[in-house]
Fold each of these.
Amino acid sequence: MQLNRKLKFIAIFIGFIFTGCASFEPGLRFHDLTRVRQPTVKEMLEGLEVSVEEFASVSKSQQAFDTDLASYGVLALLVRLENKGTENYHVHQQDIQAFLENHPLPFLSGIEAASRAATSEYVGKALGWTVATGPFFIILWPATIAGSASHTQSVNQRIQQHFEGLMFNGTLLKPNQTAAGFLYFRLPDGIKNLEKLTVEVQVSEERSGRRPTFKLSLPTLQLSNPASSSAASETRVAE
């Protein structure tokens, strides 16, 4: 009877730990991207409107990715294109670049951005809950570690899918069509203020082959914490 009570207590305690564990709950979905938003900067050229919205602030980054990306050295930019003209335009992912004081920022894939930022933060929270078992850690550690690893891997997969699902992957933009998506760039370690941040978007007109270029300058952005890749280097996405 006493053994059954102990096992029941352990089961309840473990359940409490993992229901209370950190979870990945972003508030922005792919279908939200093409809706009318207030961009940071926009430019119109030959009927094609290109806008960029920064997600460097804590509140906006939390909304879209459930973490402060910039503090992990990841800059997320939402690029939105709306064709209000009469031509068709090809827009390729590799033709969209970000520059900081005229120096190009390295591009990050969705998985790389997730690995550097959101998954690192989640694993840290999960570890914190495991350690928080306190004196019960010695008794419960096999179950908590196994459960934490399984739960973390599941959440990591969701995080990867979310980052990749929101990415701008290129498109053929016809008249009256809109395309939008995030691009991720790596920030230099230690930087706190993003000054002279520019985004260049080059498109290709389908009929003539001309390649108009949009150059958008963003206002100075102040980060909540200096960008750092040290935390990201300690944790990688679970395979």
Amino acid sequence: MTTQNRGTVKVENGRYRVTGNFHYIYPNDPIRDESGKLLGVTNPADMTHIHSYGGEAPFFENLSNARLLGTKCANPKCETFGSIYIPYRIHCPDCLMRNEEVDLTELARKGASVHTFMITERTGAFNTLETPIRFVNVEFEGVSTILMGYLSIGEPKIGMKVVPIFQTKNPTFTIMDLSWVPAGTEEKDLPEGFSF
């Protein structure tokens, strides 16, 4: 596959301007069993998907700046007024008013803990994480929701104190820019490109 003429996306006057190639087709190959019997055919293709973050863009952009943003209901008439949410929610699920951004970085550094965890050999993130993958559901004091992530170092335990780390060198602007390590981990032990 050639990477020449790879597609690019620019925003001009508030609109996406897409140019170049985003889809490459490769020849089909037969799939045969040991005796040569045709079982099927491959249908390989390379596609680039364009995802818009919309109102959630501040969450992903701030991960690259080592900040963890959440939101809270700012409607005093709402039954859940003041409820804090992470992952980032643009609108309150109860009153549907626009939520207010809150920086949860320090709260996460002081009081995050593993609520539940799962260890697996496969991930939905294109299998880019080293296996076994230690997915953790992280809870924060005073936050209504639980954030799913992954533990970069150590073995998870329910109740274990963890701190966030951020991929600030060459960020992907995805949830992969956020990971967790046990509290007390030293900076020299962090994965390459990550910092506190």
Amino acid sequence: MPMKLFSRRGQEMDESEAFIEVDALAMEQAGKSSIGIKVEKLQEFEDTDKVLKAFRSGSIVFLNIKKMREKDLGELKRSVDKLKKTIMASNGDIVGVEQDWLILCPEYARVEREG
């Protein structure tokens, strides 16, 4: 059964709500015994390498891009392009959530999209 994130205790999530499905068998084969989740901030282009290091370590990364979006859209585009290129090359997944967040998933996890 898929694991649902962000549900509150005592509240049911309906089927239309998005969730991340983690393939436990793929994780086991990759030598992972637990799921690492990191929260990072992208404030300038140089932070991109730190984010990629967390991603390459096998962690799911919740990336806050608000400061960079407000500061310099050109630099944000460069950073996101670099992230996408690396993530797609490693069969990962990247998705935007609202305007201020990205979720970066390694190969063993996918973000389900509506529609």
Amino acid sequence: MKIFANNIADQIKSSILKNKLISLNEVLFCLVLAGLILSACSKKNGGSNSSQSSGEYYFRAKLNGTPKDFQTVKFQGGGNDNHWEHVVVGGYEASVTANSGALSPSLDFEIWRVGGNIGTGTYVTTTEPQMISRYAVQTGNGTMLYNTINAKDVFTVKIDAISKDGIKGAFSGTLTNSTGVSISVKDGVFNLPYDKLVNR
């Protein structure tokens, strides 16, 4: 099962490195699916449940002034030589299970520094060429995707702590959809364990 999860991560990395933008749903679906599969494997092997709920973890923000407390969240990433070359943090507004139907709105951000290191500090889309944030809303006509593709949209992530124990920090910015409608993201904060799916 770990091979399956690694293959998902390789596909995501390959798409980004080829400058192809993948949708938020693809990223989060892969992360959630991999988390659920690994959780099921660890239960079968007598291990602990990696998707165990915990009140100490959170991923929340105000979207156009409305507070959003995301319920199914995850921090994932990796790199070579004990460096963080890739970090993705995201979640769904409602809890997601293996039997969930339609997905609720989701928000994530992703930072890549291939060959470099992502540590504590501030990261901004205007200076990080492989950084993106996305907000996806499911509609009857498909997914309405807001992101930072437009140069005018600035998204900032401040990482206060990052390790194999987890990640903590803050974020804010603006996301725009294909019709030019923008969403303001403010007061974003996160505190998540590493590579564990949290269902709150």
